[in-house]
Amino acid sequence: MSAAKLGLGQGGLEVKQFLRSREQVMFTLAFPAILLLVFGSIFKGDIGQGVKFTQYFVTGMIATGLMTAGFQALAIQIPMERDRGVLKRLLGTPMPKWVYFAGKVLMVAFIAVLETAILLAVATLLFGLDLPDTGAKWLTFLWVSALGITACTLCGVAFSSLARTGRSAPAVVTPVALILQFTSGVFFVFTDLPAWMQNLASLFPLKWMCQGLRSVFLPESFGAREPGGSYDLPMVALVLGVWCLVALVLCLTTFRWTTKRDG
């Protein structure tokens, strides 16, 4: 089989396995939409300059959805597969190692596109979300999302080596994801957070993903309320790009195919 067919075949298998897991589908796809419904129904006012809270909140939820699909899902799923011996068995087959990762990447891309579409549909139909009105904004939306999901996917693969067992993976990964959400301007206006919290969040991709998406869905004048006085898209691209490189190096140097008890 050609490399493309191998990758696509593994991707299709990963997507089927994802869709067959009701719990995973509910948590990954439905939970962000439920949060949007809850927060959008409770907080109906604006946060200044005519910007509705929902308009602000949806940017954070899209970024969170990308992080959930890439980082959180893989950092939990891979240790479980390692613990069950799935990765060890794959090593004994003729399948090239890269095919396994290609399947995960295609699964993450499928989930990310579907989840983003669901969030945009809910926010537009129920809360009057103003979609980007220029091609430049849609282009920014695409490259911020692409860089963000790439960084989150690579971080998820790298972080998967920290969990000692598959059972402990959710306990290791979920608190990290929650802390990043609360400190990165997802649930609250970022500049309303304490300075130390803003500085901490600035070290990680989620904050920059949220900032880049705010430039797409919020007025240009609202950029003055960002910590640097603008949306600073070049810095968004730089930080996300650096995280992609750092996480790739960590993946190549720390990824484990077997558990410690397997040797």
UniProtKB/TrEMBL annotation:
It is found in: Cell membrane; Membrane. Its main location: membrane. The chain crosses the membrane at residues 25-43, 55-78, 98-126, 138-159, 171-190, 235-255. This is Transport permease protein. GO terms for cellular component: ATP-binding cassette (ABC) transporter complex. GO terms for molecular function: ABC-type transporter activity. It comes from Actinoplanes friuliensis DSM 7358. InterPro entries: ABC2_TM, ABC2_TM_bact-type, ABC_2_transport, Nod_factor_ABC_transporter. The keyword Membrane applies. GO terms for biological process: response to antibiotic. Keywords: Antibiotic resistance, Cell membrane, Membrane, Transmembrane, Transmembrane helix, Transport. The lineage of its organism: Bacteria, Bacillati, Actinomycetota, Actinomycetes, Micromonosporales.
